[in-house]
Amino acid sequence: MVVIDGHGGYVPLYRVDRSEVAAQHGGRGRGESAVPARDENHVTMACEAADNALARAGVAGEDLGAVVTASVSDPFAEHGIAAHVASRFGATGDVRTTDLRGSRRAATDALAAAREFVAANDAPALVVGVDVLPADPDSDDVAEAGAGAGAIVLHRDADQPAAELVGVAQETTGFVEHHRRHGEAAETGDAKFEGRHGVGEAAPAATERALDGATPTKAVAAAPSDRLSGAALGGVDAEQVSTRDQVGDAGAAAALLDLAHLLETAVTGETALVVAYGAGGAGAVALETTDGVGTADAKSVATYLDASEETTYAKHLEYREPVDYEGVKTP
Amino acid sequence: MSGPRYDRSKRQDQHLIGFECQACGWVSFPEEKRTCKRCGDAPAEMAEVQLAERGEIQTFVVQQYLPDDIETPQPVAIVDLPQEGEGEPARAYGLLTETDLEEIDVGTEVVARFRELFSDGERPINSFKFSVPREEKA
Amino acid sequence: MTDPHVVGAGMIDFGELYEQSFDDLLESAYLSLIENVDKGVDPSDIDAAWYGTIDIANEGSSGSAVAHATGLFETPITRVENACATGSDAFRNAAQAVKAGDAEVALVIGAEKMTDSTEGLIASAALERLWRGRGVTMPAYFGMRATRHLEEYETTREQIAEISVKNHENGTKYPHAHQQFECTVEDVKESPTVSYPLNLYDCCPVTDGACAVLVTSEERAREFTDDPIRVAGYGLASDTFQRGAPEALTNFPATRQASSQAYERAGLGPDDIDVAEVHDCFSITELITYEDLGFCEDGKGGQFVDEGRPHLDGDKPVNPSGGLLSKGHPIGATGVAQIAEIFEQLRGEAGDVQVDSPEVGLQHNIGIGRNATGAVSCVNILERP
Ligand SMILES: [Zn+2]
Question: Which of A141, A151, B76, C181 is 20 to 30 A from C346 via CA?
């Protein structure tokens, strides 16, 4: 048995009104997108979410056996996120770190990898998804570019877990329509085509395997667009928990952030489903909620959603760019 | 985060470890001292202490003119970082983030926030800034 | 052992001296000194020199720059750097050497070319060191004391501003001062915020300048003037707020320590001081310094101003020359120029800013160093013999 011992999310303070962004391009938009502050980066945001998850788990950082991170927007080719999150919490030494990337299913892949680690090693593992999607003023998805992080602590057993992981599955197809180079706007392709042949052929198969006949009451689904995430839950009759209206597209972080939100708002005894669809296929995780659901011991995603401050379209663009420090190193 | 200058004090910078003089109780932070800045004990017996991830503003200013590296207005404070256990706090400079003049005063409790301070080449150097608690922004 | 005496001073007009290079400033101050020693001085009489500069213009200005400016190549010349206490510490070093009998006629020269530095002092706030003064400029360092002083005591914003008003008024009467204009409390309060709670008119200007003084043994003083001024005491000390003392948040323990050393050496106390030139890089600095020097009780610096005591016609005139706020603050020159002004005051030569027959004068600087985590203070006391 592997359980979710702690869950936590993080959403930056600043929000841009999507209708304001869309208006500049003669379009329409609704909802808001989260904008990271100028002094935030992937590692700091991941640490905020991880801090909440570790607090709920009551797990000390130095007791972690593994840290697995998922991101589709890490600006570094070599540098990584997982090892820096691990070290920030004192998880150094014999600690396995894994940086997963390249597809939004990195979120469910991370849960799968961590589950296997925990089952084999009986040491807790931390899973963190973190993303800051690039905002290109020339692209259609500039308004939706969001930012956020979600974290889950897995353990072989716990006093008061939030959920038990009952099924983990995937469907690899090799299908790619939506894709993106580092720092560039995505090539979204034909959404209808992707819905049918990309999502349609991956998500249901993964879901069916993970659920193994169970019927979920709540679900989170992450995919490159609102429309595709709806399609990823096609046929599943469950309440969809989503922060997308306030956070925007949070990439591979979305599934884990929404999962944290789900576990904060669920009751004991629910069946929940996590589906992440991205380049190459889909992953799915089924879980049964237990006594540790709720918002105790750490800041809730709802708090992060409520405690926000409007910012401008200009900051939405500027805060995603690396800061050009010309500082004084040896005064 | 690495590079000799930043790697050297990583435990203090990312884990808020301080060093308490066993002769007078003064807490050295972030330096790892062998002499005491207060009582002058040398060599001083220093015990490692864990500082809490929060602080109390002792005094502050709000900067309007700074190099482009730093966004203005920028509140800068002297903060006391309490120990997790008994003992004196450490006193240090703290940069505030996501916090306005109207939200702070002498005595305001702020929380430590893990943030990017600058970079070493391309590598971000992350350590702590301070802010009013996020829930107060609701 | 002998008592060191100041026997001459050469001041130049402070200002934005675009036409003068760093080396020109040194030459100007030296020539001004040579011209102003009552009975004259032969350069060959000078047997040691101390040079104060922080070299903000980054010209590699070591002691040899003074040799180039003066021709004193065969004379030992030592450069002193001690933050904003640089000039006063150069003087202190010269006085010590004379007192010890190691030098009989010592030159002290301080200079700073502030306007050639394109980035200025503000650039240092981009410091890439954790927990040190990243984001801390000079107005921030002193402004933090203002915030705490306003909070802890009955000090008002108006009292702080009044110091700037007083010093600007004095500056209009002092010919060497950079800024020659008066301002009101309202002007100070309405000037642009530099670093809350300090505004533009709470800050000293960016000023070029240089100054030189001549210090000799008691035995040789009268070769140069019939009216020498005795160096009665001096002190130097450092501090940091990191030591945790509560008074380091509102005041400067370094000034308290340096002044107590100087008072003790001189056998004098704060009540004996008839005129003072103190470090008013910002209005709040002077207010704090009244307390640290013992001119008034802790927390009563504001009241001290309200009562008019530090004004030209007050019982404890402070900064009759207009202080750094109006005269300017060319860092290495500042302390030396303050010595020159006390020298003039004690000789009754201060013209429109002359205070009523002073016998004892005090000079003070407070400087900030080590990435804005430490402070250093130097205090010198001069006395009519
Ligand atoms: Zn001690």
Answer: C181
